[in-house]
């Protein structure tokens, strides 16, 4: 069930998923208002939504032209939907004009508040702070109400699950809800009423699902993300007022954005395409020369941006595990599965000419090896899921000058799909191959496990000391879920996952 859900959600980019979910909430709000369930009329909601979307979309396009870059329409639509849900709906011309100004401020922040080409602050939160501090408008967060709460909660759950930020969102919701409930109880509310007031009248769930979870304004590591979530919850719950500035969710979120920026790669990443090479009949390696420094740890991934015409539903941004060594400052490499029919992104990638400049917006991930190089490990890779292990093995092989205690389970659809064979041979590790047909010839130290799905019994037999090894599993969601479960049944320790959803 989990793997099916991962595969289903993986077919939609995060940008389009956000648009669908936020659009569904907006539609529910309009329907609820038609039945008198909201304070605002359907006309006010429809006019405000139209103005917010037009203002952010048009201003985003103009700013992109001014800064000589390509506009990202889906990002503008998401920002417009957030602005619509933060500022109070209206049908008054003056109010609609101010709402348009809010959308323009949000778009401007993406360009004017970028540091070395890196996105720093959540645009909708910036607009809320600017408009409130200047007293031009008020961020009312009208989306936080008991009628919409169930729909917001379901939407937030979908987004957090898709981005693998459920724990981050939960930390924020639990801390913020607990602190506000305690405040309301201290003010004389009954505990159950205080809990309902916190969740039903404050944008706790909305903030967690649709703004705090924004990848570009989160730090790269999970513990850092949890720290930022807790910080935003605490800052949000502390009452204060300094002139026109008072305690608000938007200020709390911007504080978290600033802390996240301190943890992250502090500049946008520009790279020059060097060329590609075939790995297997259906996959290739792409090499880039960093034009700005790239900091990463083996096992992490980068988000590659390739603006192009006629973008399909998969979008213009994709995440790829880095296969090059972390200490190789002259090259950043990724391995790519080129399935047919291919997405517009991968067709654009395949058509790149050497010398072309591309951008990466984010580097992160927690699929990292233990700090102690002496810990015995077992890797399990499904197809192109081998990519994070290539960088990790290169680092371990060079770093200690001694054999690496790793057993690799490598599952492929055919023996022709065994990618990075030379790098794996150079690492000197034991490799167990699972494929439908037995290979005619395998390198020394490689063994054929047979066809079919891996089972706990087969794993225990092939790796007698499995109980003493830490396990890492990478590949498609179905493969990761199955192999992780069988490894745990066989006694492997601390199984870590890296599912390539929608690859």
TrEMBL record:
Keywords: 2Fe-2S, FAD, Flavoprotein, Iron, Iron-sulfur, Membrane, Metal-binding, Oxidoreductase, Transmembrane, Transmembrane helix. Pfam families: NAD_binding_1. It comes from Herbiconiux aconitum. The chain crosses the membrane at residues 12-39, 45-64, 142-161, 168-186, 192-211, 223-240. Its cofactor is FAD. Residues 266-370 form the FAD-binding FR-type domain. It comes from the Bacteria. PROSITE patterns: FAD_FR. The keyword Transmembrane applies. This is FAD-dependent oxidoreductase. CDD domains: FNR_like (cd00322).
